[in-house]
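Quick log. Single chain, no ligands specified.
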Amino acid sequence: MTDQLILPGRRVVRAGPVSASVPLRPVLVTVLALAGALGVAVLAVGHGEFPIPPATVWEVLTGGGTRIERHILLNLRLPRVVCALLVGVALAIAGALTQTFARNPLASPDVLGITAGASAGAVAAIVLGGVAGSLGVPLAALVGAGISATLVYLLAWRRGLDGFRLVLIGLGIGEILRGFISWVLIRAELVDATRANIWITGSLAGRDWSHAEPLALALLVLVPLALAATIALRVLAFGAETARGLGVRLQRAQLFVVVIAAALAAVAVAAAGPIEFVAFVVPQIALRLCGGSRPPLLASAMLGALLVVGADLVAQIVVAPKELPVGLLTAMIGTPYLLWLLLRRSRKVSG
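-> predicted structure:
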């Protein structure tokens, strides 16, 4: 028999000798965000030159529908929507990890140079060819993100990692990489430069199962590792000396968190290009909705999925029959928030 005991903000569920404390707000936010993401996904799958109502979408997904409806939904539209959901999950979790680890709301993969590294690798593959071109754009983006994350980690390490120093080093590496991208684009042929510019803006156009399936497989591995990384983050939150006193190998724990966050950002960028500000904004929204001292991973993941799939749907509607890059929409959301956050922090310092 199950007893339920209500505590402020939490529900303790008991079943015999086993009990679990469930935080109500994060669970509610996660469930509502998941429902919202799935609802928007159904609308997105049905939107297009051949509109399909939600009832028919459900019929097709459960094995019914006409041959044309199944082809349009399952082969043309569903892969794009799945990509949008998974990219949102990956970027939001990556941002939650880096912001918690650095204890700094500015510390997202966008700011730390990881996204710029992926963009540099992809642009090199598109324009320069050679070794980068032989890797293909997604793999070149993964390699670029890995190199960038490694450089930031090594340069920021001084007997441990300080969040403020990590952000400064990341900003510097990111600017160097953006300069490299600009130099490559100036030298590129018009066709290659156009293709590269579309990619680095962040777009889900033309995504199929060859993009969605590798991303899904990567997240099956990385998301459980990210949840495991939260254990290390809880200990690290008490400070370096306390963590060492508890027997935690500080450098190994910090490296583990950085690697998982970088890998999540890299696979998302490899699938859809650098969709800016999702990793930066979503964890802070989740933190404000759920409360607590750090961004919750699962709530961040569901809100990230909702933001990206929603932004992609809006990007297809605003200038139809053409469409905007989804990265432009997320940047329009994230840029004002970044300015507000910087203004707020400067007022705190001056006050």
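The two ends are 55 Å apart (CA to CA).
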